[in-house]
Design brief:
Helix content: 25-40%
CATH topology of the largest domain: Quinone Oxidoreductase, Chain A, domain 1
Strand order of the largest sheet: 12-11-10-13-14-15
Number of helices: 11
Pfam families: ADH_N (PF08240), ADH_zinc_N (PF00107)
Bound molecules: nicotinamide-adenine-dinucleotide, zinc ion
Family: Belongs to the zinc-containing alcohol dehydrogenase family.
Largest sheet: 6 strands, parallel
Oligomer: single chain
InterPro entries: ADH-like_C, ADH-like_N, ADH_Zn_CS, ER, GroES-like_sf, NAD(P)-bd_dom_sf
Number of domains: 2
Organism: Stercorarius parasiticus
Structural class: alpha/beta
Shape: globular
CATH class of the largest domain: Alpha Beta
Mean pLDDT: 97
Radius of gyration: 20 Å
Strand content: 15-25%
Number of strands: 15
Keywords: Acetylation, Metal-binding, NAD, Oxidoreductase, Zinc
Length: 362
């Protein structure tokens, strides 16, 4: 058993509490990883607000991490102690019917199908003050050591800087893949990206890499515009600067709407606005933002009947275990620069400060 620090969420709406926790050794088919760095994604904030489905408290959140294998359980063959790894918040068991489908990156062992609040044997490896603490998406990267099933761990290049490539565990890969894999943005096209957090900025990088010629960035926080432009946005607009709905503004700017629109916020209203912003016949709208649990969208069916495509993405469509090591290789070859997404670097003791910065739009 390892004693180390972890940021524990004891209850909905409470700040995280940095505690000493006990982390049990990995059982058969499991890997214990020393987490070196982790990002904060808005999905972690959804958990603290209690709006992510099926999460049990107390829980150790965090799902955008990178680390080093400390020990492995019986039967583990794909990684060994000392290997650099990225824990996968979307597993790839390689055996379920979805994993066997080359078109799908959804694994039937993921949280959407079966809550990953305990490990597959239905027990937790974390305790704190005599209480069992739940896992989050099996990865719980806000712990200095975490135990993960082998099929939710990807071995990466030993040269990878863990404090940078941790962003490939969620935010960067989700946004970049939403453009490249899910929307399949074509060269010369026009795109609109709603929400310029880490994920939305990564969508812009993906649209640019795919050759889009116009990329319109939309956010209510105009402080986000400089970075969006640096990454490839050709126009930046705030819905607050217009009297008419933003979908009308975008339709006027483009003639018949954009070719591809992306909602990267997680609100029902902006999801329908993004749908209405794309071309009524050939437009593709991708839902990336995670809506609050139980939210419902009502929309005019004519929006889709005229031919638009409305789709969603989990982690940008990448089959995680196969693709994350390749994305790390591309990072090392400087094919993209996800480092620009890093705004602050803090020690784990200041994790709540990190969330304050996220809430303040910094
Ligand atoms: P973030 O908080 O860093 O960014 C959100 C941005 O949206 C902010 O810049 C904010 O100003 C802007 N915004 C808020 N309300 C707005 C409005 N009404 N109109 C325009 N802009 C508005 O968040 P993030 O970490 O980039 O995550 C974005 C979303 O993506 C979250 O919902 C997160 O849960 C989701 N997400 C989904 C996946 C997936 O697999 N589909 C993966 C990662 C994150
Ligand atoms: Zn995330
Ligand atoms: Zn599977």
């Amino acid at each position: 058993v390892i004693r180390c620090r972890a940021a524990v969420a004891w209850a909905v709406g409470k700040p995280l509490s940095v505690e000493e926790v006990e982390v049990a050794p990995p059982k058969a088919g499991e890997v214990r990883v020393k987490i070196v760095a982790t990002g904060i994604c808005h999905t972690d904030e959804h958990i603290l607000e209690g709006s992510f489905p099926n999460v049990d408290f107390p829980v150790i959140p965090g799902h955008e991490g990178a680390g080093i294998v400390e020990s492995v359980g019986e039967g583990v063959t794909s990684v060994k102690p000392g290997d650099k790894v990225i824990p996968l918040c979307l597993p790839q068991c390689g055996e379920c019917s979805f994993c066997l489908n080359p078109e799908s990156n959804y694994c039937l062992k993921c949280h959407v199908s079966e809550p990953q609040t305990v490990l597959p044997d239905k027990t937790s490896r974390f305790t704190c003050k005599g209480k069992q603490i739940h896992h989050f998406l099996w990865v719980s990267t806000f712990a200095e050591y975490t135990v993960i099933p082998e099929y939710a761990v990807a071995k990466i290049d030993a040269a990878a800087p863990l404090d940078k490539v941790c962003l490939l565990a969620c935010g960067f890969s989700t946004g970049y893949g939403a453009a490249i894999n899910t929307a399949k943005v074509k060269p010369g096209s026009t795109c609109a990206v709603f929400g310029l957090g880490g994920v939305g900025l990564s969508v812009i990088m993906g649209c640019k890499a795919a050759g889009a010629s116009r990329i319109i960035a939309v956010d209510i926080n105009s402080d986000k515009f400089a970075k969006a432009k640096e990454l490839g946005a050709t126009h930046c607009i705030s819905p607050h600067d217009f009297k008419k709905p933003i979908q009308e503004v975008l339709t006027e700017m483009t003639g018949h709407g954009v070719d591809y629109s992306f909602e990267v916020i997680g609100l029902a209203d902006t999801m329908t606005a993004a749908l209405a912003s794309c071309n009524m016949n050939t437009g593709v709208c991708v839902m990336v933002g995670v809506p609050a649990s139980g939210s419902v969208i009502s929309f005019d069916p004519m929006l889709v009947l005229s031919g638009r495509t409305w789709k969603g993405t989990l982690l940008g469509g990448w089959k995680m275990r196969d693709c994350i090591p390749k994305l790390v290789a591309s990072y090392l070859e400087k094919k993209f620069n996800s480092d620009v997404l890093i705004t602050h670097t803090l020690p784990i003791a200041k994790v709540n400060e990190g969330f304050e910065l996220l809430r303040a739009g910094k």
